[in-house]
Specification:
alpha+beta, 3 domains, 2 helices, elongated
Length: 230
């Protein structure tokens, strides 16, 4: 009776471990860089039974031989963070803890800390090499990625786009096609170059000069004399 229950109990135990592994996979389906576990089963070595007809073997059930990780690349998805990265294909990110120990990870959920270092959610520094901007060749030695070590020249704004929803029922507040230009008072010491009743809608656009300084440009709209014209 006991020998007969052994294989059944071993099967139940193996099934419970496989179910636990599957539940862990489901719970981490949205975890960045998570690698699913695959439960591998194996037969328990059979028991030899000796009878007058010879030696026979009795099965002793099954057991979990290993729970291996599936390292096949998963589907890539977008996020709202510019520092979230992913490895398409083989490879790992190299990270380093405060003690100088290096680790490898597929989890690319990174952010910049207060020191300008690119770090993981655990605070490990993400490492990499410098790249020649002209040839793309790797240069220098492996180091922690820190944006404070890099500078880029400022680029002045050359174009701006505004998206607004204007009311078609609005009235024309400025006379003629050049009404806003005529009403403009650039010498007004208060900085209010147009009166409140001279236009229908106003917004601002931030632009940058060649030195990297920001400026707010006021954009003013007033309904024209033709429908759908502002």
């Amino acid at each position: 009776m006991i020998n007969g229950m052994g294989p059944a109990l071993s099967a139940l135990d193996a099934f419970a471990k496989k179910l636990k592994s599957s539940a862990n996979n489901v719970a981490n389906v949205n975890t960045p860089g998570f690698k699913a576990g695959e439960t591998l089963l194996a037969d328990i070595a059979p028991q030899d039974t000796y009878t007058r007809n010879g030696v026979s073997q009795v099965g002793r059930g099954t057991a979990v031989s290993d729970i291996s990780q599936n390292f096949e690349p998963g589907a890539l998805g977008g996020t709202d963070s510019e520092t979230d990265l992913a490895v398409g294909g083989q490879g790992y990110f190299m990270v380093q803890d405060a003690g100088g120990n290096q680790y490898y990870t597929r989890d690319g959920h990174f952010h910049f800390d207060q020191n300008g270092s690119l770090v993981t959610s655990n605070g490990y520094n993400v490492q990499g090499w410098s790249v020649d901007p002209q040839t793309g060749a790797i240069q220098g030695t492996l180091q922690n990625i820190n944006v404070n070590n890099f500078t880029s020249p400022p680029t002045q704004t050359t174009a701006a786009i505004t998206m607004v929803n204007l009311d078609s029922r609005a009235q024309n507040n400025s006379a003629g096609p050049n009404g806003l230009v005529s009403a403009w008072d650039g010498d007004n010491p208060t900085g209010q170059y147009l009166g409140d009743n001279a236009y229908e809608y106003q917004t601002s656009v931030r632009v940058y000069d060649s030195l990297g300084n920001s400026h707010n440009v006021q954009v003013t709209f007033d309904k024209g004399e033709t429908n759908n014209e502002w």
